[in-house]
Amino acid sequence: MASSLSNIIDLSKPSIHACIASIAFNPTAWNIVARNEYRNKTITRMFGGNAKYGCYFLALCIFSAGMVRDSLYHRALMEQPKVKLLPEPFDTLVPVALFAVGQTFVITSTWALGITGTFLGDYFGILMDHRVEGFPFNVLRDPMYVGSTMSFAATALWYERPAGLLITAYVYIVYLIALQFEGPFTDMIYSKRESAKAASKKEL
User: Fold this and answer.
1) What is the tally of helices (H) and strands (E) in the chain?
2) Closest by Cα among 119, 7, 128, 19 to 77
3) Cys-Cys link to 162, which of 8, 35, 68, 121 (CB 3.0-4.6 A)?
4) E strands along the chain, which residues?
């Protein structure tokens, strides 16, 4: 069992540990930072009280950290055992299709939500007027996370690294855990807004 596992994943490589750490770090860090922002407005104060600039700054940090994570993932894959996973021509068609669909979900999610909607603007007090219900949110509840996971899987299949598929499963689990914190907290923010609106109408 141990021997067969070593044929698909080499845990002795530091690159895979760095990759795994970065995957867990990103959503954990942004949840902590965003919740602190909601309560204390730390980043907003850094930008002279301008919440939008603060959100743009956080967006840049999140995007940059994502690029670092992707670079670490690629480096880790290149140091892992290569094993033929799919027969031709599916070894090319499947990863290309997976990546195309995954990136479509990611890009269209960002387009639909905008920068502030995508990058935790609601924690800065920048709330959307209504829930986005068009594509891809009419297909998936969390299309950005699903699309990102699909891209991880596509990369693993393209380079024929089984370790990448194990990392992809880990990515999905990390995302599911992150959603357990993000979803209820975001719902609470919008619920508070609706309660405040209802209270102001009663006063009128």
Assistant:
1) 7, 0
2) 19
3) 8
4) none
Model pLDDT for residues 38-55, shown as the tens digit of each residue? 999 999 999 999 999 999
Q: Given the structure tokens 């699909």, which residue do they identify?
A: 150
Q: Which residue bears the tokens 């855990």?
A: 177
- Sorted by sequence, the CB contacts under 8 Å of residue 162 that are 6+ apart come out as 8, 9, 80, 81, 83, 85, 156
Write the CB contacts of 79 (distance below 8 Å, at least 6 apart in sequence): 10, 13, 15, 16
What's the chain's average pLDDT? 91
State the residue for tokens 């994502």.
66
pLDDT at 59 over 70: yes
Q: Which of 197, 149, 203, 147 lies closest to 174 in space, CA to CA?
A: 149
| pLDDT, tens digit, 9 for 90 and up, residues 158-170 | 999 999 999 999 9
Whole-model pTM: value is 0.90
Helices (H), 79-161: 90-118, 143-159
